[in-house]
Structure formats: structure tokens, C-alpha cells
Amino acid sequence: MIEIAALMMIASGAIHAVVNAVLKSGEDKLASRALIDLSGGLVVLPAIFFFPPPHGAWGWLIGSLIVHAVYFLSLVRAFEVADMSASYPVMRGTAPVFAAMGGVFILGDAITVPVAAGMGLVTTGIFLSAIGRNLTPAALGYSILTGFSVACYTVLDAGGVRAAPTPMSYIAWAFFVLGVVIGGAFGAWRGRAFVAYARINWRSCVLAGAMGVVSYGLAMLAFSVGDLPRLAPLRESSILFALLIAIFFLREKADRLKIAGGMLIFGGVVTLLLAR
After folding, report:
1. CA 185, CA 179: separation in Å to the nearest integer?
2. What is the C-alpha R_g of the chain?
3. Three-class DSSP category at 51
4. Staple partner for 180: which of 41, 85, 157, 196, CB 3.0–4.6 Å?
5. How far is CA 247 from CA 169, 208, 222, 243, 272, in A?
6. Is-above-0.85 flag for pTM?
């Protein structure tokens, strides 16, 4: 079962990279984020009638809601002031370390030497790919805050999906609540600009919203059956896909450090897949 969970995390990472590329390519990133989140909430709306409310996990969900708000704001700001190929590696590189620590000290998950080694390779590769990208202090700060937020909501959602009556009940209600509350708040924040943006860009953002549900839904299902220290870094394989998207679709430059970082990430992913 853990092998299936690991593959789910890698698939989650690949889809996550596509969703973030849609966000990065949008002219109004806050409006784009609002439309993506609202779309995700509407996609799962029918599901909340088939799964019970996440009794026993509301505290986890409320905590996740608060952290997600910080995450989305810092993510938008990071993408506004830096290239995706520069900011994305840092934000995703800090996340697995913090998440693994949270899994060990808060959720009581175990961590072995192979898992620690794989996590180290992934994290080193991610940071290596960001070296030399001339991140400003503001971009670096927003990227690190984003990564820390990712780690926090990862631990909260891992706890929530385990505490809920069923994993699907937490997943469905979490996406609905997060989408409606945060997406609605961001949309209201942008006001008329959001309406104008949505008229033109609704197709790509609705698709990204649906993909976001699949991406993080896979991650939360994996958290319900596997340990966080091993699984969290696997989602950061998304950096490989993000770099390819940034280079070939967003026309950002490649260099040797990015290639070397990608090789380390691949080695870390393989190590984590084989770890016991």
C-alpha cells in the first residue's frame, strides 16, 4: 500500500506543477488564484452530499484554512516578484523538511535513515536548482514563507484526514470550505477586476481548479495510509515538472545547476520509493 501512496504523491506533484504554471502565467495572479480556488470548491460541491462532515477533524480543517490563506497570499507575491524557476524550488524545498519534522514531533510518524537520506537529496537538489537565480530578499522571503506554509498545512491535513470518519469526507469538505472561503475572499478583494478577469480566463482557471483538487486529493489520500516524512518529499518531485514547464512553456533559461539539481531530486525520489 505504501508503494501506491508514493506513486500517488509523485502524480500529485506533477499535476501541482501544471496548476502553478497556470497561476504564474496569469496577468492578475490574485484574481487567478481566487478563480482556481472557487472552481475547486465547486467541483467538490456534489461530493459533500455523499460523505459525512469531518467530525473529529474540524480543528484540523480550521487550522488548515488559516494556513492556506497565508500560503496563497505568499505564493501570489512570490510569483509576482520572481521567476517560477527561481521561487518554486525554494518554496518547495523548504516544505518537506518542515513537514517531516512536523510528522515526527506532532503526528508521531517514524523516520528511518534511508528516508532521511532521500529527503536530504530532494531538498539539496531543489535548493541547488535555485542557486544563481538572483532572488531578491523580498522574493526569497515570500518563497520561504510559502514553503513553511506548505509544511504547516501538510501536517494539519495529514492529521485531519486521519481524524475524520473517512479520508474522503475530510478531502471533500476541506476543498469545499477552502475554495468557497478563500476563493470568495480573494475574489471579493479584487472586486470588479476579478469579474473582468474571470470572463476572459475562466476556462484555464476552472481546469486548473479541477486539477488542483485531483493533485492535493491524491496527496491527502496518500497521507491517510503512509508516514509523512517519507511521503511529503515525494510531492516535491513537482520541481522537475515545474522546471520543464518554466523552460519550454514560460521561456525561462536553463543552466547546469538546474540540471544537477534535477538529477539529485530524481535520485532522492528513487531513494524514497525504495526506502523501508
Report:
1. 10
2. 18
3. coil
4. 41
5. 38, 20, 30, 6, 27
6. no
In angstroms, the CA 202 to CA 199 distance is 6
Distance, C-alpha 40 to centroid of its chain: 14
Between CA 168 and CA 156 the distance in angstroms is 16
- Give every CB contact of residue 141 below 8 A, 6+ residues apart in sequence: none
Residues contacting 249, CB < 8 A, separation 6+: 21, 25
Q: Whose grid coordinates read 534511508?
A: 114
Length of the chain: 276
At 151-174, the pLDDT tens digits run 899 889 989 999 999 988 999 999
The per-residue b/e assignment along 184-193, b for 16 or more CB within 10 angstroms, e otherwise, is: eebbeebeee
Of the candidates 241, 179, 146, the residue with the CA atom closest to the CA atom of residue 36:
179
Q: Which amino acid is at 265?
A: I
Burial (CB count within 10 angstroms: exposed 0-12, middle 13-18, buried 19+), residue 84: buried
Tens of pLDDT, residues 101-134: 777 788 777 777 887 887 788 778 777 766 655 5
Q: Which amino acid is at 245?
A: I
Give me the residue label for grid cell 512553456. 249
Locate 101 and state its grid cell.
519534522
Dist CA 44 CA 58 (whole Å):
18
Vertex 230 angle, CA 226 and 235, to 5° = 95
Q: What is the mean pLDDT of residues 249-256?
A: 72
